Amino acid sequence: MFNAFSLLARLPLRVLHGLGAVLGCLVFRFDARYARRCQDNLRQSKLAQNEQDYNRLLRSSIQENGKGAFELLVSWFRPAAQQDQLIQELSGWELVEAAQKSGKGIIFISPH
Prior knowledge:
This protein is an all-alpha fold and 112 residues long. It contains six helices and no strands. The protein has helices spanning 2-9, 13-30, 32-45, 51-77, 80-84, 93-102. Helix 1 (2-9) crosses helix 4 (51-77) and helix 2 (13-30) crosses helix 4 (51-77). It is globular, with a radius of gyration of 17 Å.
């Protein structure tokens, strides 16, 4: 299994995102508990103004969850230098540097 993940991680990010979007949809379709949790969380967020918005956001959320799962392969199995090349935009890094200089710990929480 480990080798399969390592091989998958070598695929271009665009391909991984496509596979992830499909995986997200499959998991949603075949895992009723996951589907219910996604639906409930989105309803509670009150982000959707109407049913059309709700369905669009739900579909997008499901696909993004799958993409995030495949992005983990990149972070686990690609060298850091290759990961760095994927960064398209960076903002607020000065806050990280300031926290480092203060000597306090930093906790990063980041989906993708």
